[in-house]
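Priority: medium. Attachment 1 of 2:
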């Protein structure tokens, strides 16, 4: 279990009240015995004037509960966070700040590190919700076998932009676009520009799932894209690769793709441990050929043997859990507890919006629900009772923040509210009907907050959402483009398949 989120500074959550009541009452408050509000409830509060967030202007979050996620800082109550340029400059009480700093009133709110989604097939966002009833078999049948060729570059641009806007709105400041439909440079550059134009942080995981990687990775398009758009690794959008390899055989035809990845310093993300599709052999092949790399991210991993988990643990690689996906689609049961027991670093992901939302609060809850649920189920099957839950709210909060940063190799620069790190911050209202009274900001953030509480989102020191509203016109533009794209795709798919896909037939064991 992780204690980073639970360490509090001496003041506890109710400093103002404590100073009135005295030390004895303060001690009771810190123990959870007294609940006070430091600001009027949101519904009753007067609207606050929005400060201007001109480029380069420092920003200070004042009098806020800070979930730093930094083991040395823990949770800081009634504190300030100062951002100058792209970075977090200081965390503390009554900070001295530059005279021109924009002030965000943090009373009645929590500030947390931006959340990170490490596996999302953004291209499918333009057909959001279409596959709500699908299994993974339905998904392959419709999207893989029938529709993928219908996406044009402009559809990929629209989908990426909309998906990123959804990220910003939900407090997800970094998203891995696990692309699968990049049929060449013009497709890849379109999808990349959708990521760049959002203003948020992303990783384009360049992929084409309809041919083995050795057939497309070395063809020149990836190298050209890296040269022309990703020459720097210190920019909001960075590049890596995505493929699955031969998942059930002891063979390694994809060696040229791996050699390319290593030569170009591009990490690789793979679907792994997926029932009937990606088996332990995938990992054994990597081991035998020297590509079980610490930069690898393995997605799902529900069906692996314990010895394979040991191999991943020893390699330094990370695992992305997409619990909503695994529970609904059937790749294998979310393996969070087992992965955690092997001390493999974990991040969380939403997979695809053709089924689910890109809400990381939902991802955290699904992860906990699945893990606690299976523990209770197994215990009850042996007529036993689980006395204490294994996985904790602090664990999944770390998976959704620092865990994501670590998975991307950005852990030293992102993932916690630590002075010197890049300023990717989310202000979550804690004075709403679903959040008051605030007793434990960590557990309430996980089990009670939702994207409606996301008030302010900052990426790389820039405010992209404030007072619950997206700044600028990116959303309206993304919506317009996505609706145009949907019209095109629906026409190509045809009304019959469009209707049939939303009502998959009776389930039969295959
Ligand atoms: Zn996936």
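Attachment 2 of 2:
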């Amino acid at each position: 279990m992780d204690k980073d989120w639970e360490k509090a500074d001496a003041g506890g959550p109710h400093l103002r009240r404590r100073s009135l009541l005295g030390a004895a009452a303060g001690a009771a408050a810190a123990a959870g015995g007294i609940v006070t509000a430091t600001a009027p409830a949101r519904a009753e509060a007067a609207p606050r004037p929005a400060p201007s967030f001109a480029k380069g202007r420092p920003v200070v979050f004042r009098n806020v509960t800070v979930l730093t996620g930094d083991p040395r800082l823990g949770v800081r109550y009634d504190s300030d966070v100062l951002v100058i340029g792209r970075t977090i400059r200081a965390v503390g009480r009554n900070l001295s700040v530059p005279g021109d700093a924009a002030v965000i009133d943090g009373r009645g709110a929590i500030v947390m590190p931006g959340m990170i989604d490490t596996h999302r097939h953004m291209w499918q966002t333009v057909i959001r919700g279409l596959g709500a009833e699908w299994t993974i078999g339905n998904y392959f049948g419709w999207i893989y076998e029938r529709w993928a060729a219908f996406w044009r570059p402009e559809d990929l641009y629209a989908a990426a932009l909309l998906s990123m806007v959804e990220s910003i709105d939900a407090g997800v400041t970094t998203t891995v676009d696990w692309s699968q439909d990049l049929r060449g440079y013009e497709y890849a550059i379109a999808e990349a520009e959708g990521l760049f134009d959002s203003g948020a942080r992303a990783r384009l995981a360049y992929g084409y799932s309809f041919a083995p990687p050795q057939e497309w990775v070395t063809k020149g398009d990836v190298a050209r894209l890296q040269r022309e758009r990703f020459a720097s690794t210190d920019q909001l959008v960075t590049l890596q690769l995505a493929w699955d390899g031969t998942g059930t055989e002891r063979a390694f035809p994809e060696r040229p793709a791996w050699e390319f990845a290593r030569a170009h310093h591009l990490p690789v993300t793979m679907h792994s441990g997926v029932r009937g599709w990606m088996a332990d052999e995938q990992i054994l092949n990597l081991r035998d050929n020297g590509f079980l790399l610490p930069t690898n991210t393995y997605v799902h991993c529900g069906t692996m043997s314990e010895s394979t988990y040991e191999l991943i643990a020893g390699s330094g690689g990370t695992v992305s859990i997409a619990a909503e996906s695994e529970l609904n689609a059937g790749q294998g049961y979310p393996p969070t507890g087992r992965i955690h027991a092997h001390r493999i670093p974990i991040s969380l992901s939403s997979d695809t919006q053709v089924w689910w939302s890109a809400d990381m609060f939902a991802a955290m809850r699904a992860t906990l629900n699945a893990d606690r649920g299976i523990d209770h189920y197994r215990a009850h099957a042996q007529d036993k009772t689980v006395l204490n839950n294994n996985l904790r709210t602090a664990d999944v909060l770390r998976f959704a923040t620092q865990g994501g940063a670590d998975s991307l190799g950005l852990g030293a620069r992102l993932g916690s509210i630590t002075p010197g790190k890049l300023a990717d911050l989310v202000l979550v209202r804690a004075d709403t009907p679903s959040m008051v009274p605030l007793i434990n900001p960590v557990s309430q953030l996980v089990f009670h907050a939702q994207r409606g509480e996301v008030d302010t989102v900052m990426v790389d020191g820039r405010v992209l959402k404030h007072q619950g509203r997206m700044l600028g016109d990116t959303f309206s533009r993304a919506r317009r483009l996505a609706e145009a794209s949907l019209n095109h795709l629906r026409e190509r798919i045809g009304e019959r398949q469009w209707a049939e896909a939303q009502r998959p037939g009776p389930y039969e064991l295959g």
